[in-house]
Amino acid sequence: MTATESTGTTTASRTTRLDGPERRWLGRTLRAYVALTKPRIIELLLITTIPTMFLAAGGFPRPLLIVWTLVGGYLAAGGANALNMYLDRDIDAQMRRTRNRPIVTGEVSPRAALVFGIVLSIISAVWLGLLVNPMSAALAVAAILLYVVFYTMILKRRTSQNIVWGGVAGCMPVLIGWSAVTGTVSWTAVMLFLVIFFWTPPHYWPLAEKFTKDYETAGVPMLPVVASRRTVSYQMIGHTVAMIACSLAIVQLGGTGPVYLVASVATGAWFLWLVLRYAVRVHRGLTGKALGPMVVFHASITYLTLLFVALAIDPFVRF
Does the keyword Membrane apply (predicted)? Predict the structure, then answer.
């Protein structure tokens, strides 16, 4: 082997050794920034967007329109979530459930998270405005402001109804999806908005019940922290009944068929039964696993998923 070959081999070996740590660092950094967007929450938001677009189109929307809308929606929600983590970093550091978030662990600096959130939010508005339509872009900007300013900065630390009114931001994807197809917002879209609006409290309060001590420590007045379990369970029943009523009102407005009708009745009755069972357990004084708040939490996700899957299938099934 020549001296040149030997040197080349040594250099290549050193480069290889450097590449491993660099790749791992890059992978960790990318995962941290993705975590800032809260992808698991965004998955649920996108599940409601696609079926809404199918209903608005009365079938398949243009494939590219779906892609453009979903990408824009992800960027908007991701930007809002990153800004939420920036603003809530003090709370996240005190709660066991959120101590591993990137800003708390130091994987992403607060300044970097702030810039990241702002950049994603701006890109989302431009993306939707240019590739979808101005209405969808305006609704996305409204969703970001509602989540970051109205919920995170104003409501979350001040009122036990924070998740009720702050949940408006989570209802916006259906309006964005509808307007992406039609350029407008109809009463059907408003009813879908209200379904998610009334769904949000019975979805989130069981989770808050499980992590009550976390919220107490952080000083966040979630309803399960400041009110009795009975009060929470009664409000969950009220919201669930209103949610089912709005889901059935969509049938009356037209545009849906038997698939959605059957699904809305069946899934609504099933979820209401679970909420009523939860209220009965509260009345009996059960706690912890015997109370089963997470059963209701997971069931709420299943309910919304099944309802919107039926909404997506419905335009293709007519008798």
Answer: yes
Task: Determine the residue type at 16.
Answer: T
Cα–Cα distances (Å) from 82 to 90, 117, 119, 237, 239, in that order, read: 14, 5, 10, 32, 29
For the record, the structure tokens of 123 come out as 């890109």
Whether the CB-CB separation of 46 and 70 falls below 8 Å is answered with yes
Residues sharing a CB contact under 8 Å with residue 32, sequence separation 6 or more, in sequence order: 102, 107, 108
Residue 309 has a CB neighbour count (10 Å cut-off) of 17
Which CATH class name applies to 186-319? mainly alpha
CATH superfamily of 29-183: UbiA prenyltransferase (1.10.357.140)
Distance in Å from the first CA to the final CA of the chain: 79
Condensed to tens digits (0 to 9), the pLDDT of residues 102-125 reads 999 999 999 999 999 999 999 999
Q: What is the pTM of this model?
A: 0.89
| Residue 62, phi then psi, degrees to nearest 5 | -60, 130
Question: How do the domains of the chain map onto residue ranges?
Answer: 29-183, 186-319
Amino acid, single-letter form, for residue 122: I
Read off the pLDDT of residues 154-165 as tens digits, 9 standing for 90 and up: 999 999 999 999
